Amino acid sequence: MDDNVISAMIFVSxxxxxxxxxxxxxxxxxxQFDDSDKFLGGALHDSEEDLNSAKKMTDRQDxxxxxxxx
Amino acid sequence: xxxSNKLHSCSHCHLEFDAKTMIFESxxxxxxxxxxxxxxxxxxxxxxxxLDSFYEKVxxxxxxxxNNEHSSLSKFDQDGYAKKYITTNDNLxxxxxxxxxxxxxxxxxxxxRILHQCEGIIEASINYTNHKAKIMWNPKEIKxxxxxxxxQSIGYNAYAxxxxxxxxxxxxxxxxxxxxxxxxxxxxxNIMWIAIAQYAGFFTGMSQSIKDILNLxxxxxxxPTLFYTGWFYFKGSFYGLKNRMINMDFLIVxxxxxxxxxxxxxSLTGFGEVYFESVTMIITFIFAGKYLEVxxxxxxxxxxxxxxxxIPSEQTVIANGHKKVVxxxxxxxxxxxxxxxxxxxxxxxxxxxxxxxxDEASISGESIPIYKKTGDKITSGTVCLDSVIQYRASxxxxxxxxxxxxTLLEESLTxxxxxxxxxxxxxxxxxxxxxLMAVLTFLGWKILGVxxxxxxxxxxxxxxxxxxxxxxxxxxxxxxxxxxLGAKKGILFxxxxxxxxxxxxxxxxxDKTGTITNGKPDVxxxxxxNEFDLNLLYSLVKSSTHPISKAIVDYLESIDxxxxxxxxxxxxxxxxxxxxxxxxxxxxxxxNTELFKEMNIDFKLDTSRSVFVFSxxxxxxxxxxxxxxxxxxxxxxxxxxxxxxxxxxxxxxxNSTVANDTAKKVGIDTxxxxxxxxxxxxxxxxxxxxKKIVITVGDGINDALALSSSDIAIAMGNNTDxxxxxxxxxxxxxxITTLYDAIVLSKTVFNTIKQNLFFSLIYNFVTILFAVMGxxxxxxxxxxxxxxxxxxVGNSLRIKRIFKNGR
Lengths: 70, 807
What we know:
Helix content of chain B: 40-55%
Radius of gyration of chain B: 35 Å
Mean pLDDT of chain B: 79
Largest interface: A-B, 31 and 31 residues
Strand order of the largest sheet of chain B: 19-31-30-29-20-27-28
Oligomer: heterodimer
Number of strands of chain A: 0
Low-confidence stretches of chain A: none
Number of helices of chain B: 28
Shape of chain A: elongated
């Protein structure tokens, strides 16, 4: 088999696999798996006001983070 | 306006009250009723903030009515508080608070929304399960006391999360290990399919360019494994070297690093074989063993938090005729505290006004409410049952019973097994020896005229094959299997090291009541003097919740399936004596011998057992003898335990007649009776001074001190919060056969561990010999390591068989 084909196969598959790995590790670190009740119960709180209030909070947090960087 | 006497439910908390006490209000053509100003205020607040969809979410669930009296909030802004609970990150403060009063998801939603609406709060997330709120705020925009005030304004309360920061740390460590393990497993699995190609190429020939690609891929995978997953081994060997010790970590590091660099050298020069897969496999396997150890370190019981959260954070103190709400920690000796029915007592004291019944179950395990009058001692941890009482504090919170026992027991939680230290010492010698052998091998083969590469390979094989993969897995796998098997049988080990200690135990100290005996009276004898209507007796005793009455009810129901209950008149419960009632002008009297002595009715019986006498119209018609019976299979269990070679001692607070009687029946020779908690602890310590390893089994707080001194503490069945906290092993069911099962399990697991260690050591020894003699290449070394691990795991699985033979 051509060398390029083999390299492509190997590196693409490892690359895709590691994407999955990183995503999982990120989820662990940011606490996505900590509270299963909240995850399931979250479906109950998706009215418009709830989403707006959530957006307000994330905006506030982003502002602080940008302020820190400066 | 409604004026009926029906019960109305409050529009906020949904609790029901008489119409006369409610506040009525009409708003926007709708009628509302509130039980108190607090609920009404919260209702208006929610409406103003636009949060009244709360009521849709909460449905008709009952909350508790809003209590607007809170202690001052200034403590939240004090420095001492901040130092203890608040962490600072880039000018933002962070704290974990427990929110009191949460009933359901809707409450969590409400609290989060209210907090989100505050300027200055950056993050507020509340965990549904443990009601812990993580709050991040800018101290320049809002103060902590204002945040708590907001929470209180909607009818909840908050206090800082104080207990057991140890648990947080354990969780963090576990998560960290898990991430590293995942990376290791991912890389190993991928490297394996690349390595297989290389193995094939080794035999059939492979062009160099393809080899290069495969080598590069393996290199990319092996590097994170070695340095990220294997990081703890680098740290471990560094600290070992600092203390002038060569430990297992150093062995692993030297083996894998040399293989790694050698493989890089080979891939660059093209001579020889590459061994990246050995590197990842070694690191991952041994790390898996380490992870299993960390997993099994997790505590099986989290009742710790349960205790601290049930202690009320505020007390109502009466000073100069005024009632003031004060923080529990601020109450002084001599203050008069008022407690309402249903509240838990937090501070020791002496009862001042109004007698009442107290539930002491959380302290003594006693199910009978205890009646106390002015002058009687009140202990923290008990619950005030039926009347509003006032009592004078005799100690402050820090010294009160619950708190002092809690601190005492917290210190006992840090016991480490001595095996760990021994293992570390041995591994030091082992590693040094292996390194020396590797060096000698290298030199030996060099002297014999072999090329540098070949000699290097051989010595690397020595190191790799000596790598204690199986050794690393020997203990954790067996203990993990043992712990989970135990859990299925109702035996909860708090940490796996207790399995080893228990297997080596020489002596057991048993409590009597509740451990060997059922802990409640059973009818032994029923003597009828005259014929009478059993239903009268049944109706009399059915009205009481006293354990003796309950025992008689059970007995009567068992001898007469058609027994009926009549409605009696003038029912009266005579404290600590018995019951009185009348039916169709016939007077019924039932109780103990003291009652009949006081009523001047003649009754004599010579017995050490509990007696219940029943008379109709002051003539005795029958009496019962009751006794706390032995648990099922108690005699057989004690016999079996003695056959295992353990010494059994009974240690009880009960009097000597009953104690000796029970001991003789069950087969225990050594009995200590009338023991106070301190005496029990002394017994344990004396045994330990004789170099004996002691297991103590008990329930109730009079065992707590003894439990904390012994090598293994077991809490059985109906235990109190505090004994659960101090125990190393907890039995979920009340059976005494579980004790025997636990001992057998521990011994089996310990034997398996010894077998595993023996096997892995012999295996290592033999294979090192082969490696030194040059028969082993690193690939074979890596494979043999996996093989040895499999054998160790398989041997450990045999533990499951001991309970399959119908135990």
